[in-house]
Prior knowledge:
The chain has one helix at residues 2-23; strands at residues 30-39, 45-57, 63-72, 76-86, 91-98, 107-117, 120-127, 133-140. By secondary structure, the chain is an alpha+beta fold. Strands 1-2-3-4-5-6-7-8 form an eight-stranded antiparallel β-barrel.
Amino acid sequence: xxxxxxxxxxxxxxxxxxxxxxxxxxxxxxxxxxxxxxxxxxxxxxxxxxxxxxxxxxxxxxxxxxxxxxxxxxxxxxxxxxxxxxxxxxxxxxxxxxxxxxxxxxxxxxxxxxxxxxxxxxxxxxxxxxxxxxxxxxxxxx
Length: 142
């Protein structure tokens, strides 16, 4: 019985360790691109949103910062900055901000919550500026 309990404990430790390793061998460091789909409060949907970004994670910390560009079909590009935190399990929480004008501080426009698994990030953003909720899938490109 004592051996079985020890084996269970070791298996749980192995599972938790494997999850942490899968989530963050390089953390969020790198260039990312992907696509998103959004829904507006009136039910209108927009597919084909493109995402490009560069994220830098602070050494020894889950804190990160970076910049991004969304390309919206028929509208053009929106660029901004992102800050946030990624935990050992790959849970990502952040804030997307836009710079509205030169020498203006960034203005927070959306929250982002997601999951990092290796070189793949799946996240949900909630945009305060237009009420949209988006699902983003991005991959590390280097």
